Amino acid sequence: MSETITLEVLRYLPETDSEPHFQRYTVPYKDEWVVLDALNHIKDHLDATLSYRWSCHMAVCGSCGMTINNEPKLSCHTFLRDYRGGVIRVEPLDHFPIERDLVIVMDSFMDKLSSVKPYLIPKQDKPLSSGEYLQTPGELNVFHQYTQCINCMLCYAACPQVGLNEDFVGPAALALAHRYNLDSRDGGKAARADVVASNEGIWECTFVGACSQVCPKCVDPAAAIQQTKISASVDWLKDLLTPGAHT
Amino acid sequence: MDVIEIDVAIVGAGGAGLRAAIAVAEADPTLTLALISKVYPMRSHTVAAEGGAAGVIKDNDSLDNHFNDTVSGGDWLCDQDAVELFVNTAPLELLQLEHWGCPWSREANGTVAVRPFGGMKVERTWYAADKTGFHILHTLFQTSLKYPSIRRFDEYYSTDLIVEDGRCTGVVAIEMRSGRMVAFRAKAVVIATGGAGRLFPFTTNGAIKTGDGMAMAYRAGVPLKDMEFMQYHPTGLPGTGILITEGSRGEGGILVNKDGYRYLQDYNLGPPDPWPRKKAMELGPRDRLCQAFWHEQQKGRTIKTPQGDVVHLDIRQLGEKKINERLPMVRELAIAYVGVDPVHEMIPVRPVVHYTMGGIHTDIDTATSLPGLFAAGECACVSINGANRLGSNSLAEIVVFGARAGRGAAAFAKANPKPGAASNAAEAAQARLRELFAREGGPDTVSGLRKAMNDSMESGAGIYRSEDTLLATCGILADLRARYRRLALQDRSNVFNTDLIQTLELGCMLDVAAAMAHSALERKESRGSHQRLEYPKRDDANYLKHSLAAFRGDEPPSIGYRDVVITRSQPAERVYGGAAT
Fold it and tell me: What residues make up the domain containing B212?
C-alpha cells in the first residue's frame, strides 16, 4: 500500500454546529504535495462539504492562510514532507471569527487596511503629460520591501496584541502605511498619522516580532512599526519645539 | 430576493474591474457603483502576472513598432483599429499607474526601466521586478480605496445577467457568506472576470479562473469570439504549472533540450547568436516556442520526468545578483516547488495553458452586442491579441480597456433610464438555484465531471489539434453537459458553500469549453496558437475571420464569422529569428 498521511481539520458550520470540532482524513502522501493539495484531495474525493479559500497555488494571492500545527502558514507553501510520519492539524487563522470550516471573517482586516489611507497622496501634483515621477533605484529600495505584502493575514494570526486588542490596526496595515510614507513620491504622512500614530496604531505594538517571523514574503512589519515609532517621536518632538513648523 | 439599485455594476475586481471602477468614479462621483467579485480584489489572478506590461515610452521605440509587433504576433487576426488605440493609450495608462504609486523598476536616472519580451522588436515592457501583476493589482486596489463611490461586494458570486427588452439591466449574485441571492439592478454592467484557463488540467491559472463572466454573457446571447485560440506559455513548472516568466528569457535565459542543445534554432527562430536578440530564439512568440517543444517531444529530445516531459530553462549566466534583483520570485518559486536553485541549476519547464485570447465579443469601445453590457480584460475579446497574444500586452490591455469600459458604462448609465424594479429574470435565476438545491443525487460528482472535461480539453484541443481529436472532445463535452444537468449538490448549506460555487463554475466551464472546441473544429487552418495537424497552413482566403460562437442552450453552439479589421498592415508571413532583426 502506498504511503498516506493524516490531516485533522477543523470543521464548523454555523447553521448546524454549536461549536467547532475536528475531522480526520487520510490522504495519499506525496513529496511534492503541499497542504493545499491534500485539502483539494479531500474536497475532490473524500468530502465535498469542506470549505476553505484558495486560488493561485504559488504564494502570491494570499487566500490560503491557515493555522498548520499551531503555526500560521500559507497552505500552498507548506509541504507535507515537513510533517512526514505525523498528523497535520489544520485550523483557520487565529484572532479572526470563523465563518465556516477554514474560512475566517476578514471584515476587520479590510477595514484596518483602508483606514491607513494606503494610496499615494502626491507630494506635488504632476500631469500625466509630463511623464513619470523620477525615482532612483535607491529611492525605490527604501520602501520596496514593504510593497511585498500579499494581505495573507498570517501576521495578524501571529501577533499577540491583535489577540488582546481587536482594534489594533495591526502589522500588515501599519507596514503598508509605512510603505507609502517612505515613497519619494508621497506627501501623505501627516494624513495617515491620525490612525498610524494613534493608541490603536504603532503604540499598541509591544515589539514581539512574531509578525516578521511568520511573514511568507519577508516584509518585516515589525521593522516598519519600529521605524514609524521613531519617526513619529521625532515629529512629536519637533512639534513640541517649533509648533506648526512642519507638516 | 434583495434588490440593490445601482448605476453601474462591475463584475470582477481584478486589474480590469478595478480600473473600470476607478474610471466610473472619476467620470462622475455621483454615479453609484457596485464592484462585485467572487473573491477579495487582491486575490484576483492579475496578482500572478509576472514579467511586465508593454507600452512605448523610450526614444528608441515607436508606436508603429508596437503596432506591427502586435499585429504580426497575432498572425493578422487582430483588429487593427483596436490595436492602434491600444498601443496609443498603453503608455498613458502605465504612467497613470506610476502616478498612483506602482513601484516600477527604475533606471539609474530615475525613469522607468523596460525589458525585452517575446515577439517585441524593441524592449518596451515595464516591470516591477518579476511581480508586475501583483504590484499593478495592489496599486489599483489600494487606489480604489480613495473613491467613496466605489462600493465593494466581496465574495459575491454572480450567476446571471438580467436582460429585459434587449438591454442588460443588472446581474444576480449569491452572497457567499450567507447564501442570500441579490439582484443588482443596474443601468450598465461591466464584465471583467478574467479567462478560462481552468478548462485545462495543466495551467498557470488560479482556481478562480473558470470563465464565469464569459459564460454569463454567452448565455445571455452575446457571442464568444475567437475561442479556439488558447495560449500555452512555454515555461511552466512541471506538476504545478506555476509560471516562470518570459522575463527570465528577456533577461537572457536560454532553453535547451536533453542534449543541452538550443533547439529553437531548428524552428525558424535562429541562429542562436548573437544572444540576447529581439524576436529571435528564446524571444520568439509563445505559440512558436510551444510548437517547437511539441516537435522536440515527438523527436524524443525532451527530458522525461514523473510530472511529464520537460526542457531546461537556463538562467545561470545572469548570475546571482541580477537574478535576485530582476527575477527574485522565479528563484523563490523554483526552489520551493521543484527544489532547483536557478543560480546554480537549470529549471525544468514545459508548456502550460496560460491565456484565453478569445472571449466576449466587444467593439473597440468594449461594448457588447447587448446594450448596457460592456466587457474588458481577459474575459473579453476586443481583438488586440488575434491568434496569439504577445507577452506583456495583457497587463497593458487590462488598464487600457478596463478604463475604457468604465467610461463607456458611466456614459451609458447617464444616458439611459433606470430599469424597472421588478425582474422576472432575477426570479428565474433564483428558481434555477432552488432547483439545483432540490436535485437528488446521481452517480456523478463535480470533481469527476471536471476531470473528464479537463482531460478531454488537453487530449483534444491542445497545442496541436486534429479533426479526430476535436470531434472526440466535442462528443465528450456534449455528454458531460447532459450529465451536468443532472448533477446534484453534496453540500446544501448556505454559508460559504464551495461545493455550490464549484458546481456553478463547472457549468460555466462546460459551456465555454463547448464554444472553444467547436470553434476549433470549424477553423480548418493553422494560425497562431491554433494548429491543425491536417491543415498546417494559414488560409487567409477562407479564415482571415473572427469566429463567433453563439449559445444554443443544450445544443452545441453555432459558429459564425466576422471580418477582421485591417487598416494598414496587410497579412504577410510572420518572420522571427535572424531574418527579423
Answer: 2-229+357-423
Q: Is the pLDDT at A237 greater than 90, yes or no?
A: no
Provide the domain limits for residue A169.
107-241
Q: Which of A89, A104, A119 is the last residue of a domain?
A: A104
Give the one of A44, A100, A144 whose C-beta lies nearest to B496's C-beta.
Answer: A100
What DSSP character marks residue B269? S
Residues of B annotated as catalytic (active site), given as ranges: 233, 249
Q: What share of chain B is helix, strand, coil (3-state, %, to 5)?
A: 40, 20, 40
Residues B20 and B106 in one domain: yes
Q: What is the pLDDT of residues A107-147, one digit of tens each?
A: 999 999 999 999 999 999 999 999 999 999 999 999 999 99
Give the type of residue at B499. D
**Is residue A247 included in any domain, yes or no?**
no
Cβ atoms A52, A39 nearer than 8 A: yes
Please indicate whether, in this complex, the C-beta atoms of B105 and A99 are within 8 angstroms of each other. no
**How far is the alpha carbon of B202 from chain A, nearest alpha carbon, in Å?**
13
To the nearest whole Å, the CA of A93 is away from the closest chain B CA by 16
Residue A209 within a domain: yes
Same domain, B418 and B430: no
- Please identify among residues 102-141 of chain A the ones whose CB lies closer than 8 Å to any CB of chain B: 103, 105-106, 110, 113-114, 117-120, 122, 126, 128, 131-137, 139-140
- Report if residue B327 sits inside a domain: yes
Spell out which residues of chain B touch residue A62, defining contact as CB-CB under 8 Å: 42-43, 47
- Residue-wise pLDDT tens digits, B410-437: 999 999 999 886 678 889 999 999 999 9
Give the up-direction half-sphere exposure of residue B568: CA atoms within 13 A in the CB hemisphere.
8
Q: What is chain B's mean pLDDT, rounded?
A: 97
Q: Are residues A98 and A52 in the same domain?
A: yes
Which residues are CB-neighbours of B250 under 8 A, at least 6 positions away?
A: B51, B115, B116, B117, B118, B123, B125, B276, B283
- Residue B305: which of B353, B244, B240 has the closest Cα? B240
Does B419 share its domain with B429? Answer: no
Domain end among A104, A131, A149? A104
